[in-house]
Amino acid sequence: MFTSAKKILTDLKKTYPDAGCSLSFRSPLELLIATILSAQCTDVQVNKVTPHLFRQFHSAQGYAEAPLELLEDAIRTTGFFHNKAKNIQNACREIVEKFDGKVPDTMELLVSLPGVGRKTANVVLSNGFGRNEGFVVDTHVFRLSHRLGLSQGKTPEKVEQELMQLFPQKDWAYLSHAFILHGRQICNARKPRCADCPLKKDCPQLGVKH
Ligand code: SF4
Questions:
Q1: Is there a contact between 75 and 53 (Cβ–Cβ < 8 Å)?
Q2: What single-letter DSSP state applies at residue 130?
C-alpha cells in the first residue's frame, strides 16, 4: 500500500472508528430496498420511511405482488418514487422467479437484477453479507478520491478499480463508510473545512480555493 494511502486509512480509523452503514435494516432484502430508496435521498429520510414500509411488506413476494400505487405511496417522501417503486417491484419479481425469494449474494447475480448497479450491489454485499467485493463509490467517495489524489478516474467504476488497488480488501467496506462520513462532515462538496480536516497533511488540495 502507498504511504499516503496507508496514512489516510490510519487517520480515518482514528477519526471515524465506528464508521458503518447508516441505513436501518434487518435482512439483505430490507437492505436492498433501503439502498434503492437512498438514491437522491438522505439515509435519515430513508430511515423515516422504512419502518412503516417494512411492516407492510415482509418478503420479496410481498413487494412483487403489491399494487404499484400502494408501494409508491409508502415511499413517496424519498423522491423519484415512481421509478423507485418500479425498480423495487421488478427486482423483487426477479428474486422470486429466479432466486427462490432470496436476495442473491454475488456481484454477478445482484447486478443482473433490474435497477441494481454495482454501487447498490456493493452496499448489499458488504453490509448484508459481510463480503468485501468492491468499494461503494457514491458522490462523496468519488469527490474525496479525487481531492485526496487517490484516483483520476472519470467514472465511479474506474475510481472503484483504483481504490481497490490502493487499499487492502479487508478495509474496503470500512473505507467506503469513512469516506462518506468525512464527505458529509468535513470535506463537503462546496465548502470543505480543510482547517479542521484530520487528513490535511496528506491532501494535495490544502490551500486550494474551492
Ligand atoms: S484537506 Fe480539505 S480537500 Fe483535503 S480531504 Fe480535507 S477537507 Fe477535503
A1: yes
A2: -
Task: Give the Cβ contact number of residue 154 at 10 Å.
Answer: 10
Instruction: Report whether residue 148 contacts ligand 1, using a CB cutoff of 6 Å.
Output: yes
Q: How far is CA 31 from the centre of its chain?
A: 10
- pTM, entire model: 0.91
Between CA 192 and CA 209 the distance in angstroms is 9
What are the grid coordinates assigned to 95, written together?
428474486
Residue 2 has pLDDT above 90, yes or no: no
**In whole angstroms, what separates CA 77 from the centre of its chain?**
19
Is-contact 71 63, C-beta < 8 A? yes
All residues at 6 or more sequence positions from 78 whose CB lies less than 8 Å from its CB, including other chains: 37, 38, 41, 45, 46, 49, 84
Strand, coil or helix: 64: helix
> Ligand 1 atom closest to Cα of 199?
6
Secondary element (H or E) of residue 169: none
Percent of the chain surpassing pLDDT 70:
96
Q: Which of 11, 84, 138, 202 is catalytic?
A: 138
Contact between residue 103 and residue 124 where contact means Cβ atoms under 8 Å apart: yes
Condensed to tens digits (0 to 9), the pLDDT of residues 138-190 reads 999 999 999 999 999 999 999 999 999 999 999 999 999 999 999 999 999 99
Q: Which of 206, 208, 209, 210 to mutate to test the pocket of ligand 1 (most atoms within 8 A of CB)?
A: 206
